[in-house]
Amino acid sequence: MVNDKASNRAQKEQDHDPPPLLMGPGKTGGTSPPADLNELRRKLREAAEPERVPELQRYFKTGPGGYGEGDVFLGVRVPAVRVVARRHAGLSLEDLTNLLRSPVHE
Q: Does residue 95 have a pLDDT over 80?
């Protein structure tokens, strides 16, 4: 009986489309404009809360000898980062590499 319930629940989950959040670019039914690295950076700066930077620097130990030494923060909250990231999901591999190599870690 328990296995039947689990099996039915699993089947129902498979029958539904994944939520749009989990879909890749172009799979939500609409077409999105080409992603642009400069636009992504601009949107992150717009979402920044500079007053949070000292708090983040302490938390991530960005001072000399800390594990986050040299990391730079804009003060963007995680939900805002996720929104910007979703809207720029079509970035090229080269642009993504540039982001990963950036000293800014939001």
A: yes
* Per-residue CA distances from 103 to 1, 5, 32 (Å): 55, 49, 28
CA gap 106, 50 in Å, rounded: 12
Q: What is the DSSP string of 59-89?
A: HTT-STTSTTTT-B-----HHHHHHHHHHTT
Residue ranges making up the domain that contains 74: 33-106
Q: What is the pTM of this model?
A: 0.63
Asked if residue 67 is part of any domain, the answer here is yes
Asked whether residue 73 is assigned to any structural domain, the reply reads yes
Residue 12 lies in a domain: no
Contact 74, 44 (CB under 8 A): yes
Query: Is residue 100 a part of any domain in this protein?
Result: yes
- pLDDT given at position 11: 52
Q: How many domains does the chain have?
A: 1
